[in-house]
Amino acid sequence: MSAYRDRRGRPLVAVTGMGLVTSLGEGKADNWNALTAGRSGIHRIRRFSTENLRTTIAGTVDFIDVEPFCAPLLSQEFASRAAQEAIAQAGIGAEFPGSLFIAVPPVEIEWPQRIALAKASGQSGDVTYDDLLKAAGSGDYRAWHDLFLFGTVAERLQERFGTRGSPISLSTACSSGATAIQLGVEAIRRGEAPAALCIGTDGSVHAEALIRFSLLSALSTQNDPPEAAAKPFSKNRDGFVMGEGGAALVLEDAEHAHARGATILGYVLGCGEKGDGFHRTRSSPDGAPIIAAIQGAIDDAGLSPDAIDYVNAHGTGTPENDKMESLGLMQVLGERMQNVPISSNKSMIGHTLTAAGAVEAVVSLMTIAEGRIPPTINYHVPDPAIPLDVVPNEARDADVRVVLSNSFGFGGQNTCLILAAEPV
């Protein structure tokens, strides 16, 4: 068996570059320092009025501005900056030798643009959707129409970084970032390209998004103080906090990476995915799809559950998610799970939605490299129904070689990754 093949004879997938942007800062170094210090990037929203909103806080990235200010351009900027950092670290060259797989939020015209288009339509009475489309397709507003097309972000990033083939845009709810990585892994394993640029990005914190999640009773309303609102695995958790950011990973066929002298940062050994048609937002009560995704990732890596040293949790802080994630982990890892550390980055950066799986994959690989586990902050009221070691409030030194990173989304989109220091 080749040293560059896994136990099934497939190309080993190495990570040679990573980039990261969150509300804690731009770049891996700033983010890592903040995460391991237990510092929160969640704060009061300043970019728009939150009057009459139940939730007035988020992990917005306020140090990056775009014009016009909207989710597609903000998501594009996060992705571009993360990709630039990842490609520079990989040293892979100006023309990227593989495809782009990017997780982006669902795109639609936002209210400021809708209002502007309604005025431009010239209608004095009710304005229909057709009126908006006609206004968007004319004059200075033509660019808006192109901006809000799904896939535009991917096309612009392909032009900038020179990736090959058709760029793949995907949106599988909160598992999207992990799914982008999974697609890159599968492309390399099939021999379609020696490398893949995998990105998750999301800049969709706006009033309408807050209202929609509030109507689902999904958001925390514990606004004061903002940094204490996200409480994954705590008994007094009441919902997630929206966040923003982007993360990028350069994946390579390990043989290709070795041949060009690249530094290998870790490996993606396994991916597990399981859809759940139970409900548009709720998890199946028996946890079967979550269990299948976790077990699938472990099996795909050719490991046993005993190999897992740490779990980077989905850990949103909603009453249901944390309970179901705990149930799934205890089902697969058994009693040993009580002694396996698990923590949630979302306690500090909020839920970055479409970007979350990629953001947490980067943090997982940094955990391996640095031998230090970021904490779950705001953990002061333990939930007896979740008897897990959640690395409460303070980072912990640990020898971590294999990480399970979980991503579970609305609509039953469940994707899990096994990330490791070396082939096992």
Automatic annotation (TrEMBL):
<comment type="similarity">
    <text>Belongs to the thiolase-like superfamily. Beta-ketoacyl-ACP synthases family.</text>
</comment>
<dbReference type="Pfam" id="PF02801">
    <property type="entry name" value="Ketoacyl-synt_C"/>
</dbReference>
<dbReference type="GO" id="GO:0004315">
    <property type="term" value="F:3-oxoacyl-[acyl-carrier-protein] synthase activity"/>
</dbReference>
<keyword id="KW-0808">Transferase</keyword>
<dbReference type="GO" id="GO:0006633">
    <property type="term" value="P:fatty acid biosynthetic process"/>
</dbReference>
<dbReference type="InterPro" id="IPR018201">
    <property type="entry name" value="Ketoacyl_synth_AS"/>
</dbReference>
<dbReference type="InterPro" id="IPR014031">
    <property type="entry name" value="Ketoacyl_synth_C"/>
</dbReference>
<feature type="domain" description="Ketosynthase family 3 (KS3)">
    <location>
        <begin position="10"/>
        <end position="421"/>
    </location>
</feature>
<dbReference type="InterPro" id="IPR000794">
    <property type="entry name" value="Beta-ketoacyl_synthase"/>
</dbReference>
<dbReference type="InterPro" id="IPR020841">
    <property type="entry name" value="PKS_Beta-ketoAc_synthase_dom"/>
</dbReference>
<protein>
    <submittedName>
        <fullName>3-oxoacyl-[acyl-carrier-protein] synthase II</fullName>
        <ecNumber>2.3.1.179</ecNumber>
    </submittedName>
</protein>
<dbReference type="Pfam" id="PF00109">
    <property type="entry name" value="ketoacyl-synt"/>
</dbReference>
<dbReference type="InterPro" id="IPR014030">
    <property type="entry name" value="Ketoacyl_synth_N"/>
</dbReference>
<comment type="pathway">
    <text>Lipid metabolism; fatty acid biosynthesis.</text>
</comment>
<dbReference type="InterPro" id="IPR016039">
    <property type="entry name" value="Thiolase-like"/>
</dbReference>
<keyword id="KW-0012">Acyltransferase</keyword>
<dbReference type="GO" id="GO:0005829">
    <property type="term" value="C:cytosol"/>
</dbReference>
